[in-house]
User: Fold this.
Amino acid sequence: MTKEVDIQKIVAVSDALLAVTDDVKILRNIAWEDHVQQEFFRYRAQRLPFVEYPKYDAAPVLARIAAVRKEIAEVPHIKKYASRIADKLESSAYLLVTRGTPAFFEHSKELYGAPTNELENGSSTIIDLANHFDRLFDRVKQEDLGAAVEMPSVSAETLAQKMREAVDQMFGEHAPEVVMDPSLASNALAGRRRIAIRPTAQFNDKDVDQLIQHEAFVHVATSINGHLQPYLKILVEGHAGTTATQEGLAVFAEFITGNIDLDRLRRLSDRVIAIQHAIDGADFIDVYRYFLEKTDHPEQSFQNAKRIFRGGVMTGGAPFTKDIVYLEGLADVHNFLRLAVAKGKFDYLDLLFVGKLNIADLPTLKKLSEIGIVAPPTFMPPWITDKRYLLSYLSYSSFLTTFDSSLSSPFYEKIFDKYDRGNWPHTS
Assistant:
């Protein structure tokens, strides 16, 4: 088999998978109409929302996926990579068929996991990490952290203007349009052609830079880089199989640029904890009240609860679990980058930005890049193009993972214990 034939078959598989992705757009197909929120508050948040979803016919999609699998079998170079994508697209179709039923939760777990899933360290779960951040926030919420009280005072239009300036400077002629979209469940959502912002959302100063790093410099960058790929066009389109890595990379960008804060971590953690509440039987109103206690903001609390119950069952037990991937993906991306630096595999850092991908795809994409089928990324955030701080941080982080903290903890514990007991000399 010649290289030319290989490329033709790889392109054919990629294009066929890409064509299927448009028919299994999950967020688009589980979105709620505006009247659902209006009705909820008209009944003073005392009645469960009622949402109807149009019938979804999965048969044509499943038939096309079956046909693509036959093509995949003839291309050993990308068999595992393409099969993983086909599996996720198939599960996405089943998810959409089961909207509003208990079976929806089973497919959601298949696609995104559950809060009790183990992280890669094998000793902690996603809910463990969420609870860790939640406890930390409770300990410091009354402390003066050296910043003014961060009240949401930046309007959506102000954020939009700053976002336009950032994407114009970064992407030039490829810059996406920045628009207002009142139907969003999140405050902002980015794609290759447009970045949408919910017009009623309010932001603080940290939110502005967080969203630029997260939405523009990661999500938009990987979308455009995927679009510019000469052969492997599937890299332009995100799907359930790429969500954890893409969101984890975006949250890591907030970290490495110093644009994350405890409030942001609390929001991510609260979503994971609320998902577990819903799995355990909490209904929409219970979860809405959980968020209301955290935010004292009715509309935002509704939006947060909607993220968890869209597509699922309002009475509890079957939520949409996508929001666990922010913390899970952050842990996975951080650990991958740390190990890449420890092993001197610096070329993998740029490879993360060639398009929409999962960390598990990188071995295949590395081989394809070496023979010219995958092109280097055109756009990357400043913290990747100038790797000096990133490598310094990850090198130190790599060392800390080999450090047995239990050996030094007694020394530090004594310091705190002596102060807490008032064990110091008295003066007369």
Remarks:
- The CA atoms of residues 14 and 224 lie 17 Å apart.
- Residues 114-397 form one domain.
- The first helix runs from residue 3 to 21.
